[in-house]
Write a structure and sequence with these properties.
There is one protein chain. α3 links the parallel β3 and β4. It is built from five helices and 14 strands. It is an alpha/beta fold.
Length: about 220
Amino acid sequence: MKVLLVEDDASLREGMVELISEQAEVREAGSVPQALAALREELFSLVITDLRIGETGEGGRIILEAARKRLQPVAIVSASTADEVVRMLRPHEPDAVLAKPFQIDDMLALVERFAGLRGEVERAAAGPVPAEGAWTQVAEGIRMFEEPGGRLWARMAPGTSHPRPAHRGGTGVMLVEGSLEVEGERRVARQYFYLSAGPREARTHEGCLAVSLALRG
């Protein structure tokens, strides 16, 4: 798992990197341009960014929008309350909020929450595929199966698309076979990605098999 940490206070960034490095590989960025470059170059399991980074104070929003397009979850770090953060970022909504000043355990719990989600999805993808008779057809060319514990399998035939319900929360997804495109962002077999809360449309040209799990907590 790799985390992108965006913080323009060098001393605070150094301390946060030291903490996060106990659980994940970290790439750090000290400015909005550096963060956007990192998002273009790599895929991250979690992006952690200060809300008011940058000269205009709008850096958190810019980074959130860029990460959302790249199908990566975003945790906002801010001295504002969670409700205030949500109001400032509307219509976008962060996947998590870490309030300043935070405790060491708060940061570790944040990273563990997303690391745990990815780990569980990866373990499911490495296991057996549900038996042929277990699937339910939910639309033309689309079948699904939900396991105990909430793991959801989906098999899409070539050329199909499926709208994600607006009420669905954040979800970690691993493609097992084929390829999938979500609003122009393409992923292929054995790639992990994250769908934030809200409606998204997924489509596949060659067909795909995927397994997903909702973010808990």
